[in-house]
């Protein structure tokens, strides 16, 4: 068993970025009829790091993956590649039942940029 020092659990310690997105990828499988399957690469190899208190704006043309990046970083869309760390904890593949502590701290402010999907996701 590994002991975790209380210091490393503190959200927003100065040495650890609050959010680290590392080569994140989200591919949606699509299906039109029984035989026609496809894949949409909504985001591909996105990396960024956000420090506590820092504000990051994501800008891009329609369909470039801004909403998917926001949703995936909150685990509202399933990442198919890369990693997401929150306060140093890898949350990329944590099952929903283990995400309670994260979801208490990571939030969406509902608004025109994010509606309606996150509200429908029940957060
Ligand atoms: N649930 C989904 N299933 C299949 N494809 C999806 C899904 N969600 C998004 N996409 C596709 O992923 C790509 C990125 O979409 P996304 O909504 O993230 O872009 P966006 O930058 O937020 O666009 P906009 O500026 O119009 O809001 C688009 O091609 C979109 O059609
Ligand atoms: Mg969008």
Question: How does this structure look, described?
Answer:
This protein is α+β, with helices and mostly antiparallel strands and about 120 residues long. The chain has one domain: 3-Layer(aba) Sandwich (Rossmann fold), CATH 3.40.50. It is built from four helices and four strands, in the order αββαββαα. It has helices spanning about 5-10, 65-75, 100-105, 115-120, and strands spanning about 20-30, 35-50, 80-85, 90. It has a four-stranded antiparallel β-sheet with strand order 2-1-3-4. Mean pLDDT is about 85; it is low at about 1-10 and about 120-123. Adenosine-5'-triphosphate binds near residues 40 and 65.
Strand percentage, roughly? Answer: 25-35%
Question: With helices defined by DSSP (H or I, 4 residues minimum), what is the helix count?
Answer: 4
The CATH architecture = 3-Layer(aba) Sandwich
Helix content: 10-25%
Poorly predicted tracts of residues: 1-9, 118-123
Q: How many beta-strand segments?
A: 4
The H-level CATH homologous superfamily, spelled out, is: P-loop containing nucleotide triphosphate hydrolases
The radius of gyration computed from the alpha-carbon positions, rounded to a whole number of angstroms, is 16 Å
Net shape: globular
Helix/strand class: alpha+beta
Distance between the termini: 33 Å
Report the average pLDDT across residues. Answer: 83
- The largest beta-sheet arranges its strands as 2-1-3-4
Query: Can you tell me the CATH class?
Result: Alpha Beta
């Amino acid at each position: 068993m590994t002991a975790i020092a209380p210091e490393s659990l503190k959200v927003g310690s100065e040495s650890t970025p609050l959010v680290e997105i590392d080569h994140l990828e989200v591919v949606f499988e699509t299906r039109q009829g029984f035989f026609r399957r496809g894949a949409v690469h909504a985001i591909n190899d996105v990396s960024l790091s956000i420090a506590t208190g820092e504000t990051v704006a994501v800008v891009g043309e329609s369909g470039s993956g801004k909403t998917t990046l926001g949703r995936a970083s909150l685990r509202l869309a399933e990442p198919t590649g890369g990693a997401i760390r929150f306060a140093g904890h890898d949350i990329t593949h944590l099952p929903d039942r283990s995400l309670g502590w994260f979801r208490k701290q990571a939030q969406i402010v509902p608004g025109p940029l994010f509606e309606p999907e996150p509200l429908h996701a029940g957060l």
